[in-house]
Amino acid sequence: DAGITQSPRHKVTETGTPVTLRCHQTENHRYMYWYRQDPGHGLRLIHYSYGVKDTDKGEVSDGYSVSRSKTEDFLLTLESATSSQTSVYFCAISELGTAGNTIYFGEGSWLTVV
Amino acid sequence: SQQGEEDPQALSIQEGENATMNCSYKTSINNLQWYRQNSGRGLVHLILIRSNEREKHSGRLRVTLDTSKKSSSLLITASRAADTASYFCFSSSNTGNQFYFGTGTSLTVIP
User: Fold this and answer.
1) Where are the beta strands (DSSP E) in A1-114?
2) Average pLDDT for chain B
3) Is residue A62 a contact partner of residue A81, using CB atoms and an 8 Å limit?
4) Does A31 touch chain B (CB under 8 A)?
5) What are the beta bridge partners of residue B71?
6) What is the pLDDT of residues A17-45, one digit of tens each?
7) A3 Cβ under 8 Å from any chain B Cβ
8) Helices in chain B by DSSP H: which ranges?
9) Residue B92 neighbours by CB distance under 10 Å
10) Rounded CA gap, B48 and B59, in Å?
11) N or C, where is chain B less crowded by C-beta within 10 Å?
């Protein structure tokens, strides 16, 4: 299994509070991704990173920000959590991006916003 | 979007039967990959087929690719209850760094 650790694995938070999810990898892969998974929507890309301090938006980036100050860590922040952000969040990594490469997923972080 | 779209959305079969699921994509691809997700877990890579390949096998998995129809199929032979999961395809082009996935096929294998 690829060395990907997500924390926390489960969190309940109140509307309006900030939340940070952490993804830590031990594979030294260049690319890191944050997805959310919701019933009926499948996996949707929030943000991704193609290097330290290099990030870009995915298809559902509103309300989220990311940071990558080290190769191994990719943080996802919800500045002011809303109930619509209740979801399962998956971190993923890839060595060289999409062309000919596989993507490895973490075990997920369950976030409930009440 | 490079998003793959899986079909059917849900499939229920008896143990021992074969399961076939399909994937369609929109643009020219470099390769196509299939992933599996067990309930409550992350996706796991199953198999990759390149655009110049038409068929590939891995254990009980058989993947076909038809680039003229922009489609792929995943066949799981002699299914087991442990094969119960959701299956996703991903089509990769020569450019871009973003992995997009469809909503998947939910497979239930009844013991």
Assistant:
1) 4-7, 10-13, 19-25, 31-38, 42-51, 54-57, 64-70, 73-78, 87-94, 104-105, 109-113
2) 89
3) no
4) yes
5) B24, B66
6) 999 999 999 999 999 999 999 987 888 89
7) no
8) none
9) 28
10) 13
11) C
